[in-house]
Amino acid sequence: MEPIRGRVLALDFGSRRIGVAMSDPLGIIAQQLPAIRREGDRRDIEAIASLAREHGVETVVIGLPLHSDGTEGTQAARARAFGEKVRGSLGLPVVPWDERMTTAQAERYLIEAGVRREKRKEVRDSLAAALLLQSALDARNRE
Prior knowledge:
By secondary structure, this protein is of the alpha/beta class.
């Protein structure tokens, strides 16, 4: 696996939206950004590339939705394939990261915070991206 370096952009790849989070310039804290509504790979990657250029991103982390036993299924294969397209287009390292339970965890946080169902749909994917990014940053910073 490639090392996670510099400012990091995280993607929670979904069929309708791509959750997005970004590290601070020092790579310590993850913060969520507005999700990208899927419009096809080409347009989605253009939006991601624009964010990466604007913020000086050096690494992209993409959530890998593994099964509970750690194996990869169809969704993980789709996320990997999309990650390869992002790598090819941006020329940046794309690191797959285990995202098991991040969406469920994000949903739980939002429910506990009293966020209404309609609003939860809008922010859940980017909150999940922030959770997976924070996990990746914490792991990198422990090394």
